[in-house]
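Appendix B. Chain record.
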Amino acid sequence: MTDSTTDGASMRPDEKTIFGHPRGLYILFFTEMWERFSYYGMRGLLILYLTQHFLFSDERSAVLYGAYTALVYVMTIIGGTLADRYLGQRKAVTYGAILLVLGHGLMAFEGSGSREVLTYEGVEYQVTLDGRGGDATQLIISDSGQSPISFNEGASDMIIAEPSAVGLPATIATDTYTTRIEKQALFVNILYLALALIIAGVGFLKANISTIVGAMYGLNDTRRDSGFTIFYMGINLGSLLSSLTVGIIGIKWGWNWGFGLAGVGMLGGLVTFLVFQPWLEGRADPPSVEKLKQKVLGPLNVEWACYLTGIGIIAFAMLTVMNAHLVPEWFVGVLGIVVFMFLVGYALIRLAGRERNRMFAAIYFVLAQIPFWALFEQAGSSLTLFTARLVDRNIFGWSVPTPVFQSLNAGFIVLFAPLFAWAWIALAKRRWNPSAPVKFAFGVFLAGLGFLSLVAGISASGAGLTAVYFIFLIYWIHTMGELMLSPVGLSAVTKMAPARAVGLTMGAWFLYSGLSNYLAGVIARTTGAETIGGQLTDVAAAKAGYAAVYTNVAYVAMGVGVLMLLISPIVKNWMKADDGLDAV
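Structure tokens predicted for this chain:
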């Protein structure tokens, strides 16, 4: 096949393009946009939903959230491998999208929620909230009425605003009452099943749709990084739209309305992918139709065996999220080591020369993302709770719902991704483009710097609420780091990995993203504070806890970033090819 070069980009003579990129990129752009709309819309509500609707503790919620987001990515290694060997990316993405529609639909079934019962002098009262999100007021309810409540600093004694309404003293000492949580088992299990369906769905969809993006371009196509950045902008456009719709609706009108809208978004992604599949021009078809139709057990063929594997993932994921607090932390570390040894073994045994070195580079990028995502993913857990409870969210007289702040990351990416996409091409023409290892080092460093900026805001606030512009600042710094790392990493991994193992390697990329998310849950758990009815009982202690944890992880990440910068020449050398292909 002869390449024709336009503006330094390698294109097929018969290639159909839109704005200089293969038109298949845009079907993937919109499919992933709607999938991320549903995922991030649900994610923006999830930690608040767990702590306020089901009344899980901060620690339990953080671990459950971490296990869920970890499995979302870990299962992509199975979906990627099955697509590489049997299903092909097109069938895998379609199956994953169907599971996601089911999972997001189930999230809309919430029940009436858990009840926190307070017992004082033998009499039971209910502690609840009069709404959702950070602006909800805590209430205590008795047979005779209800009253707002608050807590003393330090002592955590309960203050009853209208004691006569509920027949209680104005102050109740901490050691004079007990509380218990009554849960609706059916709806808690529906929650676990919904999360499991989403985990399996993303497992089949996410790695494979990124692999298709890579297949749109040749290895020496200078449009590649730009194409991945455009694709990444679609991801974040979906996130932006969901934060401004799903988040507000879920907080203002009800959890089920927010989750339901997320499900509608995922349905839009499925329909989009099905209607415009011809634009992929066969790049995502099964590697062997004959192998797909082979019988494996009675009438069961290979294709249906792959789909049944998805059912197995659902069962495993449901059991895991149900018992996330029982999973030992060392298990995740061991899993990471085992997968690392497998990847290195594959490179040493199955590859040689240039392919082996490039595979080593791909493995480096797979591992180097861990510190970044462990900090970045605090956005959906500890940073969301911090924003809801300890930030002055009033902007121009509007108390902004907490999930809306997650739109900042997506909004900044939509604004700055085109600039980065242009910059990489412009710098490449002048041979000034920083190598991928250098970009990665800056990305990790910025993740730590973002948290240092927030700690400065916590310190400046004294005993009051943290100023909201520090939330804008941390999201902006983290977004700049993300644009240095994530789209560049996706491009580098698909470029460095051998063609026969690109799906496996992309699965490993998302697997370690998942392990990073689990580590993020462990970090978030250390920020957990004492709550009643989903609200803090000691604000000062909570602020001190956040500041201490965020300071420690910031310095660790910044140190890792410096180390990565020092070793970047070694990685760049691995990436060099013998055929004149420049390193990323």
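Further analysis of this model is presented in Appendix C.
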